[in-house]
Amino acid sequence: MSSLHLEFDVAGNNFVSAGSASNEVKLTLKKLGVEPAIIRKVAVAMYEGEINMVIHAGGGKAIVDIFGDKIDIELKDSGPGIADISLAMKEGYSTATDTIREQGFGAGMGLPNMKRYTDEFEIESTVGVGTTVRLAVYF
Amino acid sequence: MDKSLNTVMLDSSKCKGCVSCMKRCPTEAIRVRDGKAKVIYDRCIGCAECVRVCPHQAKLPAYDSFDIIHNYKYKIALPAPSLYGQFQNLDSIDRVLNGLLAIGFDDVYEVSSAAELVTEASHKIIAEGKIEKPIISSACPAVLELIIMAYHGLKDHIIDTLAPVDVAARLARERAIAKGIPSKDIGVFFISPCPAKVFALKMGLGLKEPSVDGVLATSEIYFKLANAMSTLDEIKPIAKSGYSGVYWASSGGEAIGTGFKNYLAADGMENVVTVLKDMEDGKLNYIDFVELNACPSGCVGGVLNIENPFVARARLRLLRQNLPKSENSLASVGKDIDFYRWEEMPKTKDVFKLDENRLLALQKLDEIEKLLATLPLLDCGSCGAPSCRAFAEDVINGVIDKDGCVRKNENH
Fold first, then answer.
1. How far is Cα of residue B128 from the mean position of the Cα atoms in its chain?
2. What is the dihedral of CA B266, B202, B341, B337, to 10 degrees?
3. How many angstroms separate the CA atoms of B397 and B364, rounded?
4. Where are the CATH 3.30.70.20 domain residues in chain B?
5. How far is Cα B143 from Cα B411, in angstroms, rounded to an integer?
6. CB-closest option in A2, A31, A113 to B359
7. N or C, where is chain B less crowded by C-beta within 10 Å?
8. In order of start, what are the domains of chain A with their CATH numbers?
C-alpha cells in the first residue's frame, strides 16, 4: 500500500519557524487533492502541536505518515513532561509564562484544539522524560 | 470578449532565460525551457510579479489598445482611483475626469464612487453574519485567484461583494441607457492599474457576463491624458468621490471603510502568502477583516501605473485630505443588496493535484521525495524549475528529464 513518510525537526524557542512543518504538510495534502476542510483541521492541529513543542519543550520532532485514507502525526519531544494530563487538557489551562502570553500564545487551547480538530488523539507524557502526542485525521 | 486572454505575454527577443521571474512567481507557474520563460497559464493568477521583477522588460502585461474605444459610439471611462495618484500637483480630481472626456470619452464614472457603495453594501452583507471570520476582501483579483487556486479552505471567508469596477460599469451603463443610448452603442472601459484586473474583468470573475467592454492601461493613456489635462478650456464639476472611495487605491483603505477596528491589511505578494498561510493555521481567528493586495502599497503599486507606489500613495493622501468622507449612498442609488453581490461564486481550481487517483498521487509524492533526497537543494533554477522540489515534481510528471539537474554532482 502506498504511503508517504515525512519527518521534521521543530526548533525550540523559535516562534518564527513554528508552523513550517504544518505548512509542508498542508502543501503535500493539497497535492494529494485532500478536501480543504480536512486540510484545515490538520493544519490547525499540527500548528498547535508545533507551538507547544516550541513553548514548552525546547523543540522536538514531527513524524508524519500519509496514507490513502488518513494522516498520522506523531509529535515527540524530550521536554519537561506534563505532570497532570487531564488538567492540561482543560480549555484555558496553561503553564506558559507571562512573556509567552504577552506574545499571544499560551491561551490554554493547544491540546484541547489538537483533540477537537482530529479524529484520533493520544497523549503520553513522563515528567523529566518528555511528551508524545499522536494524532490521526481521516480523509 | 476574448475569454482565452492571458495576463502576461513574453517578448522572446528580450527574454534571456534568467530565472528572475520564475523564482518570484507565487504559484510556481513559470519554467525556463529552451532558454525562455514559459508560463503555465493554468497556474497564473495574474499578479504580475514577473512583470515587476523582469530585468529585461521581456514580460508584457496584457491590456486592450486605446483604439478599441472607437468601436463604440458612446464611450464610458471608469478611472481607477490609483489613476489620480499618477499626476504631480493635481489640483482636483475633476481635472482628470475632464481630461478623460477631452481624449474621446463621452462619460466618466469614477470607480471610487462605486467603491463607496461597495463599502456600504459590505456593511449590510457582513451584518447578515453568514461569512466566516476573518472576512477576506474580494477586491484584489490576483488574491482571489490565488485563494481559489491554492487556499481552497479559505473560500468561505471571502466576502461576495462585487469589485467596485463592476458596480461602476453597471451603473454607468444604466445611466447611458437612461439617456436613450442604444445598448449596442455603449462601450464601457476600465482604466486599470494592473493586468490582473484585465483578466478578472474579461473572465467576468463572480459574474455571468463581463461587466466591461475593454480594459485599458493607465500607462498607455497617460501621456495623451496628461496633455489633455494641461490644456483644458474649462473644468466641469463632475467628481463625486469622498476620501473613503479614493482611499481604496492604497493598502488599508478598504479595510478602514468596513468600520472594523480589528482589521489587518497586507500588501505585496509575499506578505499576502504569509497571511493566507497563517489564516489556514487558525492563527488569525481573532481578526475581523483581512484586506489583501497583491501589489506593494495596494493598487497604486500595479504594474500598469507610471509612478512608483510610494509617491502615488503620498499624492493620494494629499488629495483625500480635502474630500468629504463619502459622496455616495446606497439609498440614493436605490438598488437592492444583490445588485452589489457576485452572481456566482468563482470556482476553485485544482491545479496542484498530482493525480486524480489519490493512491497514485501518493505514489508520485513518494517518488518525488526520493528524488529530492538526491538533489543538491540549492533551488538555483538552472534546470528551468523554480526549486529542486518543483524539478522533482516535473520529473515525476514526465515533463523534464531527470538529468536536467546541472549541479547534482557538486559537493555541498
1. 27
2. 120
3. 8
4. 1-62
5. 40
6. A2
7. C
8. 4-138 (3.30.565.10)
Cis link prior to B134 (omega < 30° from 0)? yes
| Chain B residues closer than 8 Å to A36 by CB | 152-153, 155, 348
CA angle, B160 then B162 then B164, to 5°: 140
Helix (H, G, I), strand (E, B), or coil: what is residue B360?
A: helix
**B289, B314, B319, B321: which is closest to B300 by C-alpha?**
B314
Name B162's Cβ contacts closer than 8 Å, sequence gap at least 6. B118, B206, B207, B340, B341, B342
Cα dihedral angle (B117, B48, B219, B205), rounded to 10 degrees?
Answer: -40
Closest residue on chain A to B363 (Cα): A2
Give the span between the Cα atoms of B167 and B177, in whole angstroms: 15
Residue ranges, CATH 1.10.15.40, chain B: 357-412
Smallest CA–CA distance from A46 into chain B, residue: B281
Which strand (E) or helix (H) includes residue B113?
A: helix B111-127
Euclidean distance between CA atoms A124 and A10, whole angstroms? 19
Superfamily of domain B357-412: Electron transport complex subunit B, putative Fe-S cluster (1.10.15.40)
Along the 412 residues of chain B, how does pLDDT read in single tens digits? 344 467 889 999 999 999 999 999 999 999 999 999 999 999 999 999 999 999 999 999 999 999 999 999 999 999 999 999 999 999 999 999 999 999 999 999 999 999 999 999 999 999 999 999 999 999 999 999 999 999 999 999 999 999 999 999 999 999 999 999 999 999 999 999 999 998 888 888 889 899 999 999 999 999 999 999 999 999 999 999 999 999 999 999 999 999 899 999 999 999 999 999 999 988 898 999 999 999 999 999 999 999 999 999 999 999 999 899 999 999 999 999 999 999 998 888 889 999 999 999 999 999 999 999 999 999 999 999 999 999 999 999 999 988 889 888 776 5
CB contact under 8 A, A22 and B153: no
The type of residue at B126 is I
What are B93's three cell numbers?
480630481
Are B79 and B114 in contact, with CB atoms under 8 Å apart?
Answer: no
Mutate to test the interface with A, among B28, B270, B283 (most CBs of A within 10 A): B283
Q: Would you tell me how many other CB atoms lie within 10 Å of the CB of residue B376?
A: 15
Q: What would be the CATH architecture of the domain defined by B1-62? A: 2-Layer Sandwich (3.30)
Model confidence pTM above 0.95: no
- Kindly calculate the radius of gyration of chain B based on its CA atoms and give it in whole angstroms: 22
DSSP symbols for B198-266: HHHHHHTTTSSS-S-SEEEEHHHHHHHHHHHHHT-S---------HHHHGGGSTTHHHHHT--SSEEEE
